[in-house]
Amino acid sequence: MKILLVGSGGREHALALGLQADPACTELHCVPGNPGTAQIATNHAISLTDNAALVALAKELSIDLVVIGPELPLVNGLADQLRATGIATFGPSKAAAQLEGSKHFAKGVMRDAGVPTARSFTCESQEEIEKALDTFNAPYVVKDDGLAAGKGVVVTDDRAIALSHALSCKRVVIEEFLDGPEISLFGISDGRNILPMQPAQDFKRAFDFDKGPNTGGMGAYSPLPWAPDEIVEETYEKVLAPIIAEMAARGTPFIGLLYAGLALTDLGIRVIEFNARFGDPETQVLIPRLKTPLATLLLKAATDSLDDVALEWRDESAVTVVLAAPGYPDAPQVNGEITKLPNIADTQIFHAGTAQSGGSLISTGGRVMTVTGIGEDLTQARDRAYRAISQIELSGSFYRSDIALNASVAEKGN
Ligand code: AMP
Ligand code: GLY
Protein backbone atom coordinates (compact mmCIF):
# COMPACT_ATOMS: atom_id res chain seq x y z
CA MET A 1 0.00 0.00 0.00
CA LYS A 2 1.28 3.47 -0.96
CA ILE A 3 0.54 6.08 1.67
CA LEU A 4 0.60 9.88 1.60
CA LEU A 5 0.75 11.58 5.01
CA VAL A 6 -0.16 15.26 5.20
CA GLY A 7 1.46 17.46 7.88
CA SER A 8 4.83 18.41 9.31
CA GLY A 9 4.70 18.23 13.10
CA GLY A 10 5.88 15.85 15.79
CA ARG A 11 2.52 14.14 15.42
CA GLU A 12 3.21 13.42 11.75
CA HIS A 13 6.71 12.13 12.48
CA ALA A 14 5.18 9.72 15.02
CA LEU A 15 2.45 8.68 12.56
CA ALA A 16 5.07 8.19 9.83
CA LEU A 17 7.05 5.83 12.05
CA GLY A 18 3.91 3.90 12.92
CA LEU A 19 2.79 3.64 9.29
CA GLN A 20 6.19 2.62 8.05
CA ALA A 21 6.49 -0.10 10.70
CA ASP A 22 3.44 -1.87 9.22
CA PRO A 23 4.64 -4.31 6.52
CA ALA A 24 1.51 -3.45 4.51
CA CYS A 25 3.02 -0.01 3.86
CA THR A 26 5.23 -0.36 0.80
CA GLU A 27 5.84 3.33 0.10
CA LEU A 28 5.48 6.35 2.37
CA HIS A 29 5.28 9.96 1.20
CA CYS A 30 4.88 13.09 3.32
CA VAL A 31 3.62 16.57 2.49
CA PRO A 32 5.47 18.67 3.48
CA GLY A 33 7.00 16.45 6.19
CA ASN A 34 10.07 17.46 8.19
CA PRO A 35 13.72 16.36 8.57
CA GLY A 36 12.52 13.48 10.76
CA THR A 37 10.07 12.11 8.21
CA ALA A 38 12.73 12.60 5.50
CA GLN A 39 14.68 9.77 7.12
CA ILE A 40 11.86 7.26 6.59
CA ALA A 41 9.72 8.68 3.77
CA THR A 42 9.86 10.88 0.68
CA ASN A 43 9.00 14.47 1.49
CA HIS A 44 7.21 16.69 -1.04
CA ALA A 45 7.34 20.48 -0.69
CA ILE A 46 3.70 21.34 -1.29
CA SER A 47 1.58 23.69 0.80
CA LEU A 48 -0.91 22.11 3.20
CA THR A 49 -3.64 24.38 1.91
CA ASP A 50 -3.16 23.72 -1.81
CA ASN A 51 -5.91 21.13 -2.26
CA ALA A 52 -5.51 20.91 -6.04
CA ALA A 53 -1.77 20.25 -5.82
CA LEU A 54 -2.26 17.69 -3.04
CA VAL A 55 -4.90 15.77 -4.99
CA ALA A 56 -2.71 15.89 -8.12
CA LEU A 57 0.26 14.49 -6.17
CA ALA A 58 -1.83 11.67 -4.69
CA LYS A 59 -2.99 10.73 -8.21
CA GLU A 60 0.45 10.99 -9.74
CA LEU A 61 1.92 8.69 -7.07
CA SER A 62 -1.05 6.25 -7.32
CA ILE A 63 -1.60 6.62 -3.59
CA ASP A 64 -3.82 4.00 -1.90
CA LEU A 65 -4.38 5.87 1.36
CA VAL A 66 -4.04 9.52 2.39
CA VAL A 67 -3.71 10.27 6.12
CA ILE A 68 -4.38 13.91 7.03
CA GLY A 69 -2.66 15.11 10.22
CA PRO A 70 -3.55 18.75 10.99
CA GLU A 71 -6.93 20.48 11.23
CA LEU A 72 -6.37 23.15 8.60
CA PRO A 73 -6.53 20.91 5.49
CA LEU A 74 -9.51 19.07 7.04
CA VAL A 75 -11.47 22.26 7.59
CA ASN A 76 -10.42 23.26 4.04
CA GLY A 77 -12.15 20.20 2.61
CA LEU A 78 -9.09 18.26 1.46
CA ALA A 79 -10.68 14.93 2.45
CA ASP A 80 -13.79 15.69 0.36
CA GLN A 81 -11.69 16.42 -2.73
CA LEU A 82 -9.59 13.27 -2.31
CA ARG A 83 -12.66 11.07 -1.81
CA ALA A 84 -14.34 12.66 -4.83
CA THR A 85 -11.48 11.30 -6.96
CA GLY A 86 -11.80 7.85 -5.38
CA ILE A 87 -8.77 7.98 -3.05
CA ALA A 88 -9.24 6.33 0.36
CA THR A 89 -8.70 9.03 2.98
CA PHE A 90 -8.29 8.95 6.74
CA GLY A 91 -9.62 12.29 7.94
CA PRO A 92 -13.11 13.81 8.17
CA SER A 93 -14.93 15.79 5.51
CA LYS A 94 -15.17 19.55 5.77
CA ALA A 95 -18.66 19.19 7.27
CA ALA A 96 -17.58 16.62 9.88
CA ALA A 97 -14.41 18.58 10.74
CA GLN A 98 -16.71 21.33 12.02
CA LEU A 99 -16.64 19.37 15.30
CA GLU A 100 -13.25 21.07 15.70
CA GLY A 101 -13.77 24.07 13.41
CA SER A 102 -16.73 25.52 15.33
CA LYS A 103 -17.28 25.25 19.08
CA HIS A 104 -20.91 26.28 18.58
CA PHE A 105 -21.42 23.46 16.06
CA ALA A 106 -19.80 20.94 18.44
CA LYS A 107 -22.13 22.04 21.24
CA GLY A 108 -25.15 21.48 18.99
CA VAL A 109 -24.03 17.96 18.06
CA MET A 110 -23.41 17.14 21.73
CA ARG A 111 -26.84 18.46 22.65
CA ASP A 112 -28.55 16.37 19.96
CA ALA A 113 -26.52 13.27 20.85
CA GLY A 114 -27.03 13.65 24.61
CA VAL A 115 -23.29 13.92 25.29
CA PRO A 116 -22.30 15.47 28.64
CA THR A 117 -20.52 18.83 28.35
CA ALA A 118 -20.38 22.23 30.05
CA ARG A 119 -23.55 24.32 29.82
CA SER A 120 -22.92 27.16 27.40
CA PHE A 121 -24.23 30.15 25.50
CA THR A 122 -23.19 31.23 22.04
CA CYS A 123 -23.03 35.03 21.93
CA GLU A 124 -22.72 37.62 19.18
CA SER A 125 -23.38 40.89 21.03
CA GLN A 126 -22.01 42.59 24.14
CA GLU A 127 -25.39 42.28 25.81
CA GLU A 128 -25.46 38.51 25.27
CA ILE A 129 -21.83 38.20 26.40
CA GLU A 130 -22.39 40.10 29.66
CA LYS A 131 -25.50 38.09 30.43
CA ALA A 132 -23.65 34.81 29.86
CA LEU A 133 -20.67 35.89 32.02
CA ASP A 134 -23.00 36.80 34.86
CA THR A 135 -24.93 33.55 34.56
CA PHE A 136 -21.85 31.39 35.13
CA ASN A 137 -19.62 33.72 37.21
CA ALA A 138 -15.88 33.19 37.80
CA PRO A 139 -13.84 31.34 36.72
CA TYR A 140 -15.00 32.51 33.30
CA VAL A 141 -14.47 30.26 30.26
CA VAL A 142 -14.55 32.18 26.98
CA LYS A 143 -13.98 30.41 23.65
CA ASP A 144 -13.59 31.86 20.19
CA ASP A 145 -16.06 29.91 18.04
CA GLY A 146 -13.58 29.34 15.21
CA LEU A 147 -10.12 27.81 14.79
CA ALA A 148 -7.63 30.00 16.65
CA ALA A 149 -4.42 27.92 16.71
CA GLY A 150 -4.54 27.34 20.46
CA LYS A 151 -5.18 31.01 21.30
CA GLY A 152 -8.97 30.94 21.29
CA VAL A 153 -9.72 29.88 24.86
CA VAL A 154 -9.40 32.16 27.88
CA VAL A 155 -10.07 30.88 31.39
CA THR A 156 -9.88 33.69 33.95
CA ASP A 157 -11.27 34.99 37.24
CA ASP A 158 -11.03 38.52 35.86
CA ARG A 159 -14.34 39.61 34.34
CA ALA A 160 -12.72 42.48 32.41
CA ILE A 161 -10.26 40.09 30.72
CA ALA A 162 -13.09 37.64 29.96
CA LEU A 163 -15.19 40.43 28.46
CA SER A 164 -12.40 41.85 26.35
CA HIS A 165 -11.52 38.42 24.90
CA ALA A 166 -15.19 37.76 24.19
CA LEU A 167 -15.55 41.11 22.41
CA SER A 168 -12.48 40.35 20.26
CA CYS A 169 -14.19 37.24 18.82
CA LYS A 170 -16.74 37.38 16.03
CA ARG A 171 -18.81 34.66 17.65
CA VAL A 172 -18.02 33.36 21.10
CA VAL A 173 -19.02 30.42 23.27
CA ILE A 174 -19.17 31.18 27.00
CA GLU A 175 -19.51 28.17 29.25
CA GLU A 176 -19.44 26.96 32.81
CA PHE A 177 -16.09 26.09 34.37
CA LEU A 178 -15.38 22.36 34.63
CA ASP A 179 -13.38 21.32 37.67
CA GLY A 180 -11.34 18.12 37.56
CA PRO A 181 -8.36 16.46 35.89
CA GLU A 182 -8.26 16.59 32.09
CA ILE A 183 -7.56 13.66 29.81
CA SER A 184 -7.39 13.13 26.07
CA LEU A 185 -9.17 10.11 24.67
CA PHE A 186 -9.16 9.41 20.93
CA GLY A 187 -11.32 7.16 18.82
CA ILE A 188 -10.61 5.85 15.32
CA SER A 189 -13.77 5.82 13.23
CA ASP A 190 -14.91 4.52 9.85
CA GLY A 191 -18.07 6.61 10.09
CA ARG A 192 -20.14 3.83 11.76
CA ASN A 193 -17.81 2.15 14.26
CA ILE A 194 -15.39 3.90 16.59
CA LEU A 195 -12.48 2.19 18.34
CA PRO A 196 -11.41 3.99 21.50
CA MET A 197 -7.66 4.33 22.04
CA GLN A 198 -6.04 4.37 25.47
CA PRO A 199 -6.20 7.67 27.34
CA ALA A 200 -3.29 10.12 27.52
CA GLN A 201 -2.73 13.30 29.44
CA ASP A 202 -1.39 16.47 27.88
CA PHE A 203 0.31 19.41 29.67
CA LYS A 204 -1.01 22.64 28.13
CA ARG A 205 0.73 25.36 30.13
CA ALA A 206 4.22 26.51 29.15
CA PHE A 207 5.97 26.13 32.51
CA ASP A 208 6.33 23.68 35.38
CA PHE A 209 3.40 23.10 37.74
CA ASP A 210 0.94 24.47 35.17
CA LYS A 211 2.23 28.02 35.23
CA GLY A 212 2.47 30.37 32.26
CA PRO A 213 0.50 30.74 29.06
CA ASN A 214 -1.48 28.05 27.22
CA THR A 215 0.44 26.24 24.49
CA GLY A 216 -0.25 23.55 21.91
CA GLY A 217 1.00 21.05 24.52
CA MET A 218 4.35 20.69 26.31
CA GLY A 219 4.35 16.95 26.99
CA ALA A 220 2.17 13.90 27.46
CA TYR A 221 2.10 10.41 28.90
CA SER A 222 0.13 7.18 28.67
CA PRO A 223 -1.25 5.09 30.30
CA LEU A 224 -2.84 6.97 33.23
CA PRO A 225 -2.37 4.80 36.32
CA TRP A 226 -4.61 7.09 38.40
CA ALA A 227 -7.61 7.10 36.02
CA PRO A 228 -10.67 4.93 36.75
CA ASP A 229 -10.48 1.54 35.00
CA GLU A 230 -13.79 2.06 33.22
CA ILE A 231 -12.80 5.41 31.68
CA VAL A 232 -12.35 4.03 28.16
CA GLU A 233 -15.63 2.10 28.17
CA GLU A 234 -17.50 5.02 29.71
CA THR A 235 -16.12 7.51 27.18
CA TYR A 236 -17.02 5.12 24.38
CA GLU A 237 -20.60 4.79 25.59
CA LYS A 238 -21.29 8.35 26.65
CA VAL A 239 -19.25 10.32 24.13
CA LEU A 240 -17.59 8.59 21.18
CA ALA A 241 -20.35 6.24 20.01
CA PRO A 242 -23.18 8.81 20.33
CA ILE A 243 -21.20 11.44 18.40
CA ILE A 244 -20.43 9.01 15.57
CA ALA A 245 -24.10 7.96 15.43
CA GLU A 246 -25.27 11.59 15.41
CA MET A 247 -22.84 12.61 12.64
CA ALA A 248 -23.93 9.62 10.54
CA ALA A 249 -27.61 10.45 11.14
CA ARG A 250 -26.97 14.02 9.93
CA GLY A 251 -25.59 12.63 6.68
CA THR A 252 -22.05 13.83 7.51
CA PRO A 253 -20.30 10.71 8.85
CA PHE A 254 -17.08 11.31 10.75
CA ILE A 255 -14.29 9.22 9.20
CA GLY A 256 -10.99 9.74 10.94
CA LEU A 257 -9.71 10.46 14.42
CA LEU A 258 -12.14 11.93 16.92
CA TYR A 259 -10.23 13.60 19.76
CA ALA A 260 -12.24 14.03 22.96
CA GLY A 261 -10.74 16.39 25.54
CA LEU A 262 -12.48 15.43 28.78
CA ALA A 263 -12.73 16.77 32.31
CA LEU A 264 -13.28 14.16 35.02
CA THR A 265 -15.57 16.14 37.31
CA ASP A 266 -17.32 15.12 40.52
CA LEU A 267 -20.48 14.76 38.45
CA GLY A 268 -18.82 12.47 35.89
CA ILE A 269 -17.06 12.94 32.57
CA ARG A 270 -17.68 16.14 30.61
CA VAL A 271 -16.43 17.02 27.13
CA ILE A 272 -14.20 20.11 27.10
CA GLU A 273 -13.57 20.05 23.37
CA PHE A 274 -13.39 17.92 20.26
CA ASN A 275 -10.65 17.88 17.70
CA ALA A 276 -10.97 16.21 14.33
CA ARG A 277 -7.42 14.83 14.25
CA PHE A 278 -4.73 13.17 16.33
CA GLY A 279 -3.45 15.30 19.22
CA ASP A 280 0.05 16.66 19.36
CA PRO A 281 1.96 15.60 21.52
CA GLU A 282 -0.40 12.79 22.67
CA THR A 283 0.27 10.91 19.42
CA GLN A 284 3.96 10.73 20.32
CA VAL A 285 3.06 8.49 23.29
CA LEU A 286 0.11 6.60 21.82
CA ILE A 287 1.65 5.42 18.55
CA PRO A 288 4.72 3.89 20.23
CA ARG A 289 2.32 1.98 22.54
CA LEU A 290 -0.06 0.78 19.82
CA LYS A 291 0.58 -2.79 18.69
CA THR A 292 -2.10 -2.92 15.97
CA PRO A 293 -0.43 -2.30 12.59
CA LEU A 294 -1.23 1.35 11.86
CA ALA A 295 -1.37 1.46 8.06
CA THR A 296 -3.81 -1.46 7.87
CA LEU A 297 -5.90 0.06 10.67
CA LEU A 298 -6.21 3.50 9.08
CA LEU A 299 -6.97 1.97 5.66
CA LYS A 300 -9.80 -0.04 7.24
CA ALA A 301 -11.15 3.14 8.85
CA ALA A 302 -10.95 4.96 5.52
CA THR A 303 -12.82 2.16 3.72
CA ASP A 304 -15.70 1.55 6.15
CA SER A 305 -14.23 -1.74 7.39
CA LEU A 306 -13.64 -1.51 11.15
CA ASP A 307 -16.40 -3.99 12.08
CA ASP A 308 -14.18 -6.75 13.44
CA VAL A 309 -11.13 -4.78 14.49
CA ALA A 310 -9.95 -4.44 18.11
CA LEU A 311 -6.95 -2.35 19.14
CA GLU A 312 -4.00 -4.00 20.85
CA TRP A 313 -1.58 -2.20 23.15
CA ARG A 314 1.89 -2.80 24.54
CA ASP A 315 2.19 -3.00 28.31
CA GLU A 316 4.95 -0.38 28.29
CA SER A 317 4.46 3.22 29.40
CA ALA A 318 5.45 6.23 27.32
CA VAL A 319 6.33 9.79 28.30
CA THR A 320 7.01 12.58 25.82
CA VAL A 321 8.56 16.00 26.49
CA VAL A 322 8.50 18.96 24.10
CA LEU A 323 11.65 20.98 23.45
CA ALA A 324 10.41 24.55 22.92
CA ALA A 325 12.17 27.47 21.24
CA PRO A 326 13.03 30.51 23.38
CA GLY A 327 10.00 32.81 23.58
CA TYR A 328 7.45 30.05 22.89
CA PRO A 329 4.46 30.39 22.79
CA ASP A 330 4.14 34.18 22.46
CA ALA A 331 7.14 34.99 20.23
CA PRO A 332 9.25 31.94 19.45
CA GLN A 333 12.77 32.65 18.17
CA VAL A 334 13.73 30.50 15.21
CA ASN A 335 16.88 29.70 13.18
CA GLY A 336 18.85 28.39 16.15
CA GLU A 337 21.27 25.54 15.49
CA ILE A 338 20.30 22.20 17.06
CA THR A 339 23.15 19.84 17.97
CA LYS A 340 23.96 16.75 20.04
CA LEU A 341 20.86 14.73 19.19
CA PRO A 342 21.31 11.61 21.31
CA ASN A 343 20.71 8.07 20.18
CA ILE A 344 19.50 6.26 23.29
CA ALA A 345 17.75 2.89 23.39
CA ASP A 346 14.00 3.07 24.08
CA THR A 347 13.80 6.75 23.21
CA GLN A 348 12.58 8.40 20.06
CA ILE A 349 13.14 11.95 18.88
CA PHE A 350 10.26 13.37 16.85
CA HIS A 351 11.00 16.42 14.74
CA ALA A 352 8.46 19.25 14.57
CA GLY A 353 9.77 22.79 13.99
CA THR A 354 13.11 21.86 12.39
CA ALA A 355 14.75 22.19 8.98
CA GLN A 356 18.04 21.27 7.34
CA SER A 357 20.03 24.33 6.36
CA GLY A 358 23.48 24.07 4.80
CA GLY A 359 24.40 20.88 6.61
CA SER A 360 23.00 22.04 9.98
CA LEU A 361 19.74 21.27 11.68
CA ILE A 362 17.96 24.50 12.66
CA SER A 363 14.79 25.44 14.53
CA THR A 364 11.86 26.78 12.51
CA GLY A 365 8.97 26.82 14.99
CA GLY A 366 7.90 27.09 18.60
CA ARG A 367 7.67 23.39 19.34
CA VAL A 368 11.00 22.20 17.94
CA MET A 369 11.05 18.51 18.84
CA THR A 370 9.35 15.98 21.08
CA VAL A 371 11.34 13.31 22.85
CA THR A 372 9.55 10.11 23.89
CA GLY A 373 10.87 7.59 26.39
CA ILE A 374 9.43 4.09 26.60
CA GLY A 375 9.77 1.97 29.74
CA GLU A 376 8.30 -0.68 31.96
CA ASP A 377 6.50 2.01 33.91
CA LEU A 378 6.14 5.79 33.78
CA THR A 379 9.14 6.31 36.03
CA GLN A 380 11.45 4.47 33.65
CA ALA A 381 9.87 6.06 30.57
CA ARG A 382 10.26 9.51 32.14
CA ASP A 383 13.89 8.92 33.07
CA ARG A 384 14.68 7.92 29.50
CA ALA A 385 12.84 10.87 27.95
CA TYR A 386 14.57 13.35 30.26
CA ARG A 387 17.99 11.76 29.82
CA ALA A 388 17.64 12.16 26.05
CA ILE A 389 16.14 15.67 25.95
CA SER A 390 18.72 17.04 28.40
CA GLN A 391 21.48 16.26 25.91
CA ILE A 392 20.01 18.24 23.01
CA GLU A 393 21.59 21.65 22.52
CA LEU A 394 19.62 24.61 21.18
CA SER A 395 20.45 28.00 22.63
CA GLY A 396 17.71 29.39 24.89
CA SER A 397 15.42 26.40 24.44
CA PHE A 398 13.43 25.04 27.36
CA TYR A 399 11.22 22.16 28.40
CA ARG A 400 8.99 21.35 31.35
CA SER A 401 10.57 19.18 34.01
CA ASP A 402 7.34 17.88 35.55
CA ILE A 403 5.77 15.89 32.68
CA ALA A 404 4.18 12.73 34.19
CA LEU A 405 5.84 13.51 37.52
CA ASN A 406 2.75 13.22 39.73
CA ALA A 407 1.52 10.16 37.85
CA SER A 408 4.87 8.41 38.23
CA VAL A 409 4.88 9.13 41.97
CA ALA A 410 1.31 7.82 42.28
CA GLU A 411 2.26 4.72 40.30
CA LYS A 412 4.98 3.86 42.84
CA GLY A 413 2.44 4.14 45.64
CA ASN A 414 0.24 1.46 44.03
P1 AMP B 1 -8.62 24.28 24.11
O1 AMP B 1 -7.85 25.39 23.45
O2 AMP B 1 -10.01 24.13 23.64
O3 AMP B 1 -7.80 23.02 24.15
O4 AMP B 1 -8.77 24.70 25.64
C1 AMP B 1 -7.64 25.05 26.35
C2 AMP B 1 -7.77 24.71 27.79
O5 AMP B 1 -8.75 25.54 28.41
C3 AMP B 1 -8.26 23.31 28.08
O6 AMP B 1 -7.28 22.35 28.00
C4 AMP B 1 -8.74 23.48 29.51
O7 AMP B 1 -7.64 23.43 30.40
C5 AMP B 1 -9.30 24.86 29.52
N1 AMP B 1 -10.77 24.80 29.42
C6 AMP B 1 -11.51 24.80 28.30
N2 AMP B 1 -12.83 24.71 28.60
C7 AMP B 1 -12.91 24.64 29.94
C8 AMP B 1 -13.99 24.55 30.88
N3 AMP B 1 -15.26 24.55 30.49
N4 AMP B 1 -13.69 24.49 32.19
C9 AMP B 1 -12.41 24.53 32.61
N5 AMP B 1 -11.34 24.64 31.79
C10 AMP B 1 -11.59 24.70 30.47
N1 GLY C 1 -2.48 18.45 22.49
C1 GLY C 1 -3.60 19.25 22.16
C2 GLY C 1 -3.99 19.21 20.76
O1 GLY C 1 -3.47 18.46 19.97
O2 GLY C 1 -4.87 19.97 20.40
The biggest sheet, with number of strands, parallel, antiparallel or mixed sense and barrel status, is: 5 strands, parallel
Report the strand count.
23
In DSSP terms (H or I, runs of 4 or more residues), the helix count works out at 14
User: Which bin fits the share of residues in helices?
Assistant: 25-40%
Indicate the CATH class of the largest domain: Alpha Beta
Tell me what portion of residues adopts beta-strand conformation. 25-35%
Distance between the termini: 44 Å
Tally of discrete structural domains: 4
Short description:
This protein has 414 residues and is α+β, with helices and mostly antiparallel strands. Helices cover 31% and strands 28% of the residues. It has a 5-stranded parallel sheet with strand order 3-2-1-4-5, with helices on both faces.
Strand and helix layout:
Blueprint: E1 2-7, H1 10-21, E2 27-32, H2 35-38, E3 42-43, H3 51-60, E4 65-68, H4 71-75, H5 78-84, E5 88-90, H6 98-101, H7 103-113, E6 120-123, H8 126-136, E7 140-144, E8 153-156, H9 159-168, E9 172-175, E10 182-190, E11 194-196, E12 201-202, E13 205-207, E14 211-214, E15 219-222, H10 231-249, E16 255-265, E17 268-275, H11 283-289, H12 294-302, E18 317-324, E19 337-338, E20 347-351, E21 354-357, E22 360-363, E23 367-375, H13 378-389, H14 405-413
Parallel strand pairs: 1-2, 1-4, 2-3, 4-5
Antiparallel strand pairs: 6-9, 7-8, 7-9, 10-11, 10-16, 12-15, 13-14, 15-18, 16-17, 18-23, 19-22, 20-23, 21-22
The chain binds adenosine monophosphate and glycine.
